[in-house]
Amino acid sequence: MSEMKLIPYRTEQILQEAEEFPKGVKLVEAESLWERTSQGKGSVVAVIDTGCQMDHPDLENRILGGYNFTDDYEGDETNYDDNNGHGTHVAGTIAAIDNKKGVIGVAPQADLLILKVLSGEGSGQYDWIINAIEYAINWEGPQGERVRVISMSLGGPDDAKEMHEVVQKAVNQGISVVCAAGNEGDGRENTYEYAYPGCYNEVIQVGAIDNQRAIADFTNTNDEIDLVAPGVDVLSTYIGGKYARLSGTSMSTPHVAGGLALIIPLVESQFQRSMSEPEIFSQLIKRTLPLGYSKAAEGNGLLMLSLTDKLEELFSTYTTAIN
Prior knowledge:
Elements: E1 4-6, E2 10-15, H1 23-27, H2 31-37, E3 44-49, E4 63-68, H3 86-95, E5 111-116, E6 123-124, H4 126-138, E7 149-152, E8 154-155, H5 161-172, E9 176-180, E10 204-209, E11 225-230, E12 234-238, E13 242-247, H6 249-271, H7 277-285, E14 288-289, H8 295-298, E15 302-303, H9 307-322
Parallel strand pairs: 3-5, 3-7, 4-5, 7-9, 9-10, 10-11
Antiparallel strand pairs: 1-6, 1-8, 2-13, 12-13, 14-15
Helix pairs in contact: 2-6, 3-6, 4-5
GO molecular function: serine-type endopeptidase activity
Family: Belongs to the peptidase S8 family.
Pfam family, one: Peptidase_S8
């Protein structure tokens, strides 16, 4: 069986500093839920990737813990620092803090569990990923916190029964598993490209759009795409305390993972109970806007976190008008 790898992505620009509200965070309208969810406070997202720069100023106090499953750092399991850059970029899109400088994530008060399963070269063994998902399922934080979302911007050509089984186990225990669709697309909606674990039915598979809401030419299309999110020229945190603009479905995935970190506390407070993964998935899909592409390209459409509020407002106006 071949190794699992980072889904190839494009590095557009590396910056020493930044001061910007990222366009992708604006496009998914994350800010519309911040007040009602305390910016995702209490949600824990497991980032299964290349690690994370633990002392990046925009990720301060957001990392609750982590584990290194790779051979990097002589296999020191306590060192999950990012020696690639990809994992730090993903983490920033999910939860970069609102410190009035740098960038801000979709859920700036969500907590992160950093699980390093890919080496500095961007590759890893299937066993490392399987063990990391199992770790996320069983992990408990210092205040009894549990992982509710797993973000995986990685993929491989091979299906693995053990990986599928542990993904199913996570979902059955109420964890939303968000995966990148892959960047092997040929720009045609009617030809399908598959990467694992993204194309498992149980995961939430995310394709990419650009900042004009057009489907990215590189994004995989297939019959298991669930939704799309910004994935072109995405600005986020990077190693060395820097920032970078990257493109790929790897960058779309954390927009959805961060979105779930807002949706989960919102709807559980509304329903006054814990929600199952299928219930959370239905709440996510209620917040998608079709863009006019085929289902194989966009699934249910673009993540738009304010959509249900807009529909309620429209319905309220309409009801008032007819009365």
